Amino acid sequence: xxxxxxxxxxxxxxxxxxxxxxxxxxxxxxxxxxxxxxxxxxxxxxxxxxxxxxxxxxxxxxxxxxxxxxxxxxxxxxxxxxxxxxxxxxxxxxxxxxxxxxxxxxxxxxxxxxxxxxxxxxxxxxxxxxxxxxxxxxxxxxxxxxxxxxxxxxxxxxxxxxxxxxxxxxxxxxxxxxxxxxxxxxxxxxxxxxxxxxxxxxxxxxxxxxxxxxxxxxxxxxxxxxxxxxxxxxxxxxxxxxxxxxxxxxxxxxxxxxxxxxxxxxxxxxxxxxxxxxxxxxxxxxxxxxxxxxxxxxxxxxxxxxxxxxxxxxxxxxxxxxxxxxxxxxxxxxxxxxxxxxxxxxxxxxxxxxxxxxxxxxxxxxxxxxxxxxxxxxxxxxxxxxxxxxxxxxxxxxxxxxxxxxxxxxxxxxxxxxxxxxxxxxxxxxxxxxxxxxxxxxxxxxxxxxxxxxxxxxxxxxxxxxxxxxxxxxxxxxxxxxxxxxxxxxxxxxxxxxxxxxxxxxxxxxxxxxxxxxxxxxxxxxxxxxxxxxxxxxxxxxxx
Length: 544
Description:
- It is built from 16 helices and 28 strands.
- By secondary structure, the chain is an alpha/beta fold.
- It has a 9-stranded mixed β-sheet, sandwiched between helices. The protein has a 5-stranded antiparallel β-sheet with strand order 1-19-20-22-23, with no helix packed on it. Strands 7-6-8-9 form a 4-stranded parallel β-sheet, sandwiched between helices.
- The chain is globular.
């Protein structure tokens, strides 16, 4: 019997699947613009003097600087012309590790319109991590913060990077200075839909990061689907308080607003006080569960402050049912949970339109239009409705593979072309997708992916360490938090505080475990495998 597939807003009735949302033929014209930026700029409003983005103070919410649609187009043109002047090879990568700013978004758009490949890097990454990314991706251009130039420049020089520019959170830097001397008009470079638009690195369970290759069609098809499915229009105002080095902030939030001619209120970082100050004039907010928890801790959050809002979206980590219910009680709004990943952008979503169903806490909704989801057992067999298995997906949003890792790419796809997400879940009797866990022990802390094997590698290299196990346990603020359980070598005297300090000097802070426990041994099964499930049970109430 073939594996069951759930697609669009389909409902499961007597184990059969019925159709839901209408097809999206009206996108055909815009989808012929194969360069993603061509589609984005085609959606700009006729009145280019209108405000596209307001940069806001991250502590008070006050407007710092408005940017018009004309300025957005002209400044991305200058950046594209600057890149073109460097005579870079076709398909060159532009690696970016900068603080969030409107200019950083313009850099992303400028790379797209110039026809190159954008490579965003988490601002928390340290030297050893950046050295790997630059060595693996071999970018032609690197853009970093001025404060990081002293240690990034030698890494770039060793990798024979063509040019290194700086871009600071206030919008200055050598990139802006160099671009200012170029023309404010630019013809968008023609790309095919299969051409790479971006590479997103997602850490591997063996400690080796993988670069997910996303094409112009991958990103545009997903953005257009979300735009329609979530009811976006030019009347929307998005509060953008997410980082822009991963899918949620860079692709989901930004693309939806840009393709709708919707205004964005742009925060360089999240602060509950600033967000609540601007909520009355906004219509859409997107955040990881941690942001919702922090907003709920502010007594000013109520139905009045949210009276003009139409949509709150949560993702990138599990949303606790307590948070889901409290938000609905306090604001009168039901959070829309969705599910996606670096390799696919968005895959499923709870309904926006009530005629398609209710938004159900503890689920990530239905497969988006054009996306197929199936649940398979360990041997590839079909899982009946309600039975837990591995989640596999297909659709125009699914990436082509991992950068320079053909064997890993082959391993992650089934023989019939479905991508194995590595997540474990089920589809209930009404067609809602439920994520019940993650294979390979992935931890999602504050919306960021943390892979235990990578952290264990650093710990195991420390003097006196025999072995370690890193697990994720529930955390009221971050959703999950990492905990390291470490066994010392005979005669060693390990110091948990010193170990944490050592880790903080080597890896991004979000990867560093919240606690380290020194033990005599790790629990193992008959085959000698560490039983991390027992460790999770032991420490499940640690942060309760």
